[in-house]
TrEMBL record:
Entry keywords, A to Z: GTP-binding, Hydrolase, Mitochondrion, Nucleotide-binding, Protein biosynthesis
InterPro entries reported for this sequence: EFG2, EFG_II, EFG_III, EFG_III/V, EFG_V, EFG_V-like, EFTu-like_2, G_TR_CS
Name the record gives this protein: Ribosome-releasing factor 2, mitochondrial
A molecular-function term among this protein's GO annotations: GTP binding
Organism name: Sphaeramia orbicularis
Function: Mitochondrial GTPase that mediates the disassembly of ribosomes from messenger RNA at the termination of mitochondrial protein biosynthesis. Acts in collaboration with MRRF. GTP hydrolysis follows the ribosome disassembly and probably occurs on the ribosome large subunit. Not involved in the GTP-dependent ribosomal translocation step during translation elongation.
CDD domains: EF-G, EFG_III, EFG_mtEFG_C, mtEFG2_II_like
Family: Belongs to the TRAFAC class translation factor GTPase superfamily. Classic translation factor GTPase family. EF-G/EF-2 subfamily.
GO cellular component terms listed in the entry, alphabetical order: mitochondrial matrix
Coiled-coil segments on the chain, per record: none
Pfam families per record: EFG_C (PF00679), EFG_III (PF14492), EFG_IV (PF03764), GTP_EFTU (PF00009), GTP_EFTU_D2 (PF03144)
GO biological process: mitochondrial translation; ribosome disassembly
Length: 749
């Protein structure tokens, strides 16, 4: 009966929006939990690929859990503290109450299909955010409204900007609206477009006023266990609370003016039709203008709520479908492939029963199960046995998936993160020809280079330590485990020390290494031993030096003669990288010869002259290369490498240490103790801010001094402080600290 009433409800009714919301809620209550097999498969214009990103503990996973519940895909609300949320399914995530790896879920909301990725908020797992944003079309940035923009918020926001991802801001734990809006404006340099005003705040937060439609959305919690599914929607009128009414009117006028400044089409509409009465602007016109502003990344819509209290999540879902782009609006259509398959592998998981599971973002064509596909990066043909719809750690098999979606595949045994998957070699060749014809230029090498999708940028590790199996009999098992984990997590590097023969783990932080160690024990059953954590320093040079070298070697009956002249100089403007340049007289070198020279230079950048750490901020100028006929390219690389080694030693070395941005939130009573401890760690205080009853300490401190800091901070403050770290830069060590490090590394200390 309720369904009949819901269907027959007149859309012109004054309260149609309220009644439709009410009966939609009743409809959801009487239905069973939805199956993934029933997820709508709409036109590409109604698909939304989004990510949830934020600082740790801002409420990303809680918000995701509510989205799944209100959309009907889970029966009960999970809680991060109880360890029973859908997207935090790893044992380590449930024990620690944090997100460690990104999790993908698929669900529908009011005729739209939403592919959502819940990302970690801890700096050690920033790669998970990076590779998610690489393939997403939009993002929801969740903020703790009482704290505003925090350290990791800045990091994920910069990542979204790098990939030109349109964003929506959700102020969670609704408390201090003005403070949060100002921090978005000041710290993120963004243009917040406020779409709602709060009704109450903190514990008294009961709902919002929708400035687009001029309606009140009220959540009346009748009991502690109220799930927030049902809420009232009422038009704003003169009988409402005067303060709420006045704030809403002022905010709507400000919204209209702000959008008019950002969108020319809307400004023209106002000037022509509504110049004398801005309140008469139709909500549909205002919403369309906000959407254009969002897609152009001129502003970011801001919505309010409290996910833990089950308030404000349904309007957030409506905003995702209304303002964030569909796949065909992101200018990411792979035009060279036309209707042929083209997809990017952005994540790999290992399943004990099914083997490697590869996540693919499909950009064009249709992905089908039981078909062979071509991996351009590996130049290999692989057979995809099964195709799945992702839902955290539970998946449903399907026969095919169209463009614009995110799919999970079984059977791609060679594919790794960043690989481009296409229909066939012929398809890739045809796409390359189209790209070549369009550019009207030929390429002698790398025919498919222009049609390979850009991969995922992997940050350099900052910590390393040795890892040893319990017995030599377990060495092969450990190597297999590390190979699988590296394929899952490209930010984990594994190498073998050439002197000691020990296996060395390189990771993004203490927690990262700790999680890897725990996963080896739990998932692979190997009780490994970790050596002490060490910092991954870098080196640079201090002088400009020119040098020359000649290699003359006879191998068998062939003589190889190469003479190289080059110079190296410090390059502070290199942005942390190393460069190779060629003087004009070297332009006659063939492309193959230039590549051999570059290989010799880059191999020398891997080890600095002091301690063998990688080099940065160095520029090399190749002045001349003379090669006698018959000399192999390998000999050219060897000669360049030897000449580089000589130049680097003459240029003098300088150790660079990673310096972290530290943010500590602590009660004023403990501030003195924290500052005193920081001074002993060679820290530099940049600012001390007030946040409610707490102080927020902003500082920079060398990473080497932050070992075990969480335990020390907990002791100093009796557990009344939190902190976050982010890599700020690599800075030159002073002479005394550098000499101490050199002695320690050489075994004298």
């Amino acid at each position: 009966v309720l369904r009949v009433i819901f269907v027959r409800l007149k859309p012109t009714s004054k309260y149609s929006y309220f009644y439709s919301s009410f009966f939609y809620s009743i409809h959801m209550l009487i239905d069973e939990v939805k199956s993934l097999r029933t997820v709508v498969n709409p036109d590409i214009s109604k698909i939304r690929n989004i990510g949830i990103m934020a600082h740790i503990d801002a409420g990303k996973t809680t918000t995701t859990e509510r989205m799944l519940y209100y959309s009907g895909y889970i029966r009960a609300l999970g809680d991060v503290d109880d360890g029973d949320t859908v997207t935090d399914f790893m044992a380590q995530e449930r024990e620690r109450g944090i997100t460690i790896q990104s999790a993908a879920v698929t669900f529908d909301w009011k005729s739209h299909r939403i592919n959502l990725i819940d990302t970690p908020g801890h700096v050690d797992f920033t790669l998970e955010v990076e590779r998610a944003l690489r393939v997403l079309d939009g993002a929801v940035a969740v903020f703790d409204a009482s704290a505003g923009v925090e350290a990791q918020t800045l990091t994920v926001w910069r990542q979204a900007e790098k990939h030109h991802v349109p964003c929506i801001c959700f102020l969670n734990k609704m408390d201090n609206l003005g403070f949060s809006i100002q921090s978005i404006r000041d710290k993120l340099k963004a243009n917040p477009v406020l779409l709602q005003t709060p009704i109450g705040s903190g514990k008294n937060f009961t709902g919002v006023v929708d400035l687009i439609t001029n309606q009140k959305l009220i959540w009346k919690q009748k009991s502690v266990g109220d799930d927030g599914r049902a809420y009232e929607v009422k038009p704003l009128n003169e009988l409402d609370d005067a303060a709420v009414l006045q704030e809403a009117k002022g905010a709507r006028s400000a919204l209209i003016e702000q959008v008019a400044d950002l969108d020319d089409e809307f400004a023209e509409l106002l000037l022509n039709d509504f110049i004398e009465n801005l309140d008469a602007v139709p909500s549909i016109k205002l919403q369309a203008a906000v959407r254009r502003v969002t897609l152009a990344r001129k502003g970011v819509p801001v919505l309010l709520g409290s996910s833990l209290k089950n308030k404000g999540v349904q309007p957030l879902l409506d905003a995702i479908t209304a303002y964030l782009p569909a796949p065909n609006e992101r200018n990411m259509t792979i035009q060279w492939y036309k209707d042929d398959l083209c997809a990017l592998a952005f994540k790999v998981l290992h399943d004990k029963q099914r083997g490697p599971l590869v996540f693919l973002r499909i950009y064009s064509g249709t992905l089908k199960a039981q078909t062979a596909v071509h991996n351009i990066n590996r130049n290999s043909i692989e057979r995809m046995s099964r195709l799945l719809v992702p839902f955290a750690d539970q998946h449903v098999e399907i026969p095919s998936m169209p463009a614009g979606n995110i799919a999970l595949t079984v059977g791609l045994k060679q594919t790794v993160t960043g690989d481009t998957i296409v229909l066939s070699k012929a398809s890739a060749a045809a796409a390359a020809r189209r790209a070549q014809n369009k550019a009207d230029t030929g390429k002698k090498r790398g025919e498919h280079a222009s049609v390979i999708l850009s991969g995922v940028e992997v940050p350099d590790p900052v910590f390393f330590c040795t890892i040893e199996p319990p017995t030599m009999a377990k060495q092969a098992d450990l190597e297999n485990a590390l190979n699988c984990l590296q394929r899952e997590d490209p930010s984990l590097k594994v190498r073998v020390d050439p002197d000691s023969g020990q296996t060395v783990l390189c990771g993004m932080g203490e927690l990262h290494i700790e999680i890897i160690h725990d996963r080896i024990r739990r998932e692979y059953g190997i009780e490994t031993h970790l050596g002490p954590l060490q910092v991954a320093y870098r080196e640079t040079i201090v002088q400009h030096v020119s040098t020359t070298d000649t290699l003359d070697r006879t191998i068998g009956e062939k003589r190889h003669v190469v003479t190289v002249e080059l110079s190296v100089r410090p390059a502070a403007d290199a942005g942390g990288s190393c460069q190779v340049e060629f003087e004009e007289q070297t332009v006659e070198l063939s492309p193959e010869m230039k590549e051999a020279v570059e290989n010799g230079v880059h191999s020398s950048y891997l080890q600095g002259p002091l301690l063998g750490y990688p080099l940065q901020d160095v520029s090399t100028l190749i002045q001349s290369v003379h090669v006698e006929s018959g000399t192999s390219l390998a000999m050219v690389s060897a000669c360049v490498s030897r000449c580089m080694l000589k130049a680097l030693k003459l240029a003098g070395g300088q150790v660079l240490e990673p310096v972290m941005s530290l943010e500590v939130t602590v009660g004023e009573d403990y501030l003195g103790s924290v500052l005193g401890d920081l001074a002993q760690r060679r820290g530099t205080v940049r600012d001390i801010q007030s946040r409610h009853d707490n102080k927020v300490l902003l500082a920079t401190v060398p990473l080497a001094e932050m070992m075990g800091y969480s335990t020390i901070l907990r002791t100093l403050t009796s557990g009344n402080a939190t902190f976050s770290l982010e890599l700020d830069s690599y800075e030159a060590m002073n002479l005394q600290d550098q000499n101490t490090l050199l002695k320690r590394m050489s075994g004298l200390l």
